[in-house]
Amino acid sequence: MSTLSAINFLSDSTSQLLPFWIALAQNDRDLELAANARQLAYGKHLPLLGEKLALPDDDDRHADSAVLLAYSKLDGSCIGTVRVQIAKQQPLRLEDSYVLPKALKSGRIAEISRLAIPARSNGLALRLMLIKAAYWYSRANAVERCFLCVRFPVDRQYRRFELEDVLQPDEFVAMKHIGMIPHRILWFDVFQIEARWLLSANPLHSVYFSNIHPDLLQNIQMRTLELETQSRLSSIG
After folding, report:
1. Is the pLDDT of residue 81 over 70?
2. Mean pLDDT over all residues of the chain?
3. If you ran DSSP here, which 8-state letter would residue 99 be given?
4. For the chain, is the Cβ count within 10 Å smaller at the N or the C terminus?
5. By the 8 A CB rule, do 64 and 89 touch?
6. How far apart are CA 190 and CA 145, in angstroms?
7. Could you state, in order of their start, the residue ranges of all structural domains in the chain?
């Protein structure tokens, strides 16, 4: 599925049900499903890394982390996963390899990682929705900035997100938590990217902000918007 086709598929209506749902991992069985998806996805191109990811790690079980899983509505199988680590009790895992500038570490920050989609069918649409779920999870938890580490040539797929480089454009850092593979470190402002995409007419704006997808984390987008509205009204009153 092309980028345009995926965006059109996800932009047909204001509120749209998906052929899958995304939920938070609740137990060891869920974490094992996530690890299996990682092994299959990463193992296609990076067999050694795939083997290292075959089992849940300590970060999966840490209080700072949330593992998200996508399940097919057709048969209930796990078809994708992503992890969000919010730096509450410990630094972001990427900081094992590169210490972020103080200006980017102020406030609450998070790292979106371990994105894995084993099958190619509807892979791009699923990728967009996993990242959307991670975004709204971060926003619901008052995260100010999110970071992603992406390797070449996968980093080219993130151009559509209009993210910022922590280092110089196209500069890579070997990441200890990703098998010492060189990655770009990208980031975005959680509460400003909506306006940024609106001004740039980014087609992802409608997918991430105008359209509601109830299948994402029990309609986390709508629930978060309602809480934000209540908070603003309370501050006015």
Report:
1. yes
2. 91
3. P
4. C
5. yes
6. 5
7. 3-236
